[in-house]
UniProtKB/TrEMBL annotation:
<feature type="domain" description="ACB">
    <location>
        <begin position="4"/>
        <end position="89"/>
    </location>
</feature>
<keyword id="KW-0809">Transit peptide</keyword>
<dbReference type="GO" id="GO:0004165">
    <property type="term" value="F:delta(3)-delta(2)-enoyl-CoA isomerase activity"/>
</dbReference>
<protein>
    <recommendedName>
        <fullName>Enoyl-CoA delta isomerase 2</fullName>
        <ecNumber>5.3.3.8</ecNumber>
    </recommendedName>
</protein>
<dbReference type="InterPro" id="IPR014352">
    <property type="entry name" value="FERM/acyl-CoA-bd_prot_sf"/>
</dbReference>
<keyword id="KW-0007">Acetylation</keyword>
<comment type="similarity">
    <text>In the C-terminal section; belongs to the enoyl-CoA hydratase/isomerase family.</text>
</comment>
<comment type="function">
    <text>Able to isomerize both 3-cis and 3-trans double bonds into the 2-trans form in a range of enoyl-CoA species. Has a preference for 3-trans substrates.</text>
</comment>
<keyword id="KW-0496">Mitochondrion</keyword>
<dbReference type="InterPro" id="IPR051053">
    <property type="entry name" value="ECH/Chromodomain_protein"/>
</dbReference>
<keyword id="KW-0576">Peroxisome</keyword>
<dbReference type="InterPro" id="IPR029045">
    <property type="entry name" value="ClpP/crotonase-like_dom_sf"/>
</dbReference>
<dbReference type="GO" id="GO:0000062">
    <property type="term" value="F:fatty-acyl-CoA binding"/>
</dbReference>
<dbReference type="Pfam" id="PF00378">
    <property type="entry name" value="ECH_1"/>
</dbReference>
<keyword id="KW-0597">Phosphoprotein</keyword>
<feature type="region of interest" description="Disordered">
    <location>
        <begin position="82"/>
        <end position="104"/>
    </location>
</feature>
<dbReference type="InterPro" id="IPR001753">
    <property type="entry name" value="Enoyl-CoA_hydra/iso"/>
</dbReference>
Length: 358
């Protein structure tokens, strides 16, 4: 839901009431988001190098580029509410700019060397994504879009990158199945929009097999680095489901309709090299040197001028944005109906009730 004028005014009042001094970095983000929300993109003349205070303000505001006023207003409200809740929880401690930052159990978010690293961290379930993890990722991307890091990188803990949507999300939802499907469609749309909207370079470090939504999302990434152990699998028909994360549009565009159908309709699992040949993966690395090579590369990329990368990304993506929002909305409506279908329910029940392999 978008922030209303009232939400915005409440947030402005909240800032005055905040007991905890938010620290300079946060103050600058608040300042920049407030200016963007009220005045639009930075219109302040660039201060001289020695005018440190105004230069820091200018940098923070200018870094928001052409972020729409509406989005800036929403981000301002969200930032204030996150500050309010952390001031109610004094045990959390201060967050530095270039240190381990925010942590939730199944999604780890750290900031180091200019990179926000978002890790699927549920290895005992092959990093399957729960409803809470979707929400954690939306928040992590929102924070990373306005903090001082240069890019965001997704990866997984353990042997899997991610096994896709947690198939128990629906069976464990409270309320009726129709309500769960409707809530799921809203959550999915917001989740995918947060990738479409992410303004900085977005990279996946695919450390192992990837399934379902963790594969389809890759069409919205700017770089995909894969271990040669990784595989890419979208078994939607087998699950009685249909494609999401704009893959019904990005995959045929990227690999042609025949190869897209092989993955999205027939559920063919691709090796890392096959995925590279189809344009889904940027580069494949041998497993034994994967982590070292990829992170060295990423740290180098993170030293490139951030504004240039952000502006170039905007140029590359902006003509597609409206189309992507529309595709996302349509895919979510289609999936909402699929989740209620017998085909899908049977597939989910058969996964949930499968016998132990021993
Ligand atoms: C209100 C509701 C809101 C819901 C939000 C909705 C948003 C929906 C968005 C998108 C919809 C769909 C897109 C998709 O992602 S479809 C793809 C879904 N994923 C799968 O089909 C994969 C299912 N898993 C497997 O096939 C296998 O587990 C595996 C990944 C091939 C691994 O096999 P394995 O033999 O090596 O390991 P296994 O013993 O099976 O797994 C270890 C434990 O992990 C659990 N697990 C693995 N994947 C999932 C999963 N996707 N969902 C839930 N649990 C999973 C598995 O059950 C094992 O658990 P346990 O040890 O038995 O307890």
């Amino acid at each position: 839901m978008r922030a209303s004028q009232q939400d915005f005014e409440n947030a402005l009042n909240q800032v005055k009431l905040l007991k905890k001094d938010p620290g300079n970095e946060v103050k600058l983000r608040l300042y920049a988001l407030y200016k963007q929300a009220t005045d639009g993109p930075c219109n302040m003349p660039k201060p001289g190098m020695l005018d440190f205070v105004n230069k820091a303000k200018w940098d923070a505001w200018n870094a928001l580029g052409s972020l729409p006023k509406e989005t800036a207003r929403q981000n301002y409200v969200d930032l204030v509410s996150s500050l309010s809740s952390s001031s109610e929880a004094p045990s959390q401690g201060k967050r530095g700019a270039d240190e381990k930052a925010r942590e939730s159990k199944d999604i780890l978010v750290t900031s180091e060397d200019g990179i926000t690293k978002i890790t699927f961290n549920r290895p005992t379930k092959k990093n399957a994504i729960t409803s809470q993890m979707y929400r954690d990722i939306i928040l992590a991307l929102k924070n990373a879009s306005t903090d001082n890091t240069v890019m965001a990188v997704f990866t997984g803990t353990g042997d899997y990158y991610c096994s896709g949507n947690d198939l128990t999300n629906f069976t464990s939802a409270t309320g009726g199945i129709e309500e769960a499907a409707s809530n799921g469609a809203v959550l999915l749309r917001d989740f995918v929009n947060s990738f479409i909207d992410f303004p900085k370079p977005l990279v996946a470090v695919v450390n192992g097999p990837a399934v379902g939504i963790s594969v389809t999302l890759l069409g919205l990434f700017d770089g995909v680095f894969a271990s040669d152990r990784a595989t890419f699998h979208t078994p939607f028909s087998q699950l009685g489901q249909s494609p999401e994360a704009c893959s019904s549009y990005t995959f045929p565009k990227m690999m042609g309709s025949a190869k897209a159908a092989e993955m999205l309709l027939f559920g063919k699992k691709l090796t890392a090299r096959e995925a590279w040949a189809q344009g889904l993966v940027t580069e494949v690395f041998p497993e034994n040197t994967f982590e070292t090579e990829v992170w060295t590369r990423l740290k180098t990329y993170a030293k490139l001028p951030p504004n240039a990368m952000r502006i170039s990304k905007e140029l590359i993506r902006k003509n597609e944005k409206e189309k992507l929002y529309a595709v996302n909305a349509e895919e979510c409506t289609t999936l909402q109906a699929r989740w209620l279908s017998e085909e899908c329910m049977n597939a989910i029940m058969s996964f949930v009730s499968r016998k132990s392999k021993l």
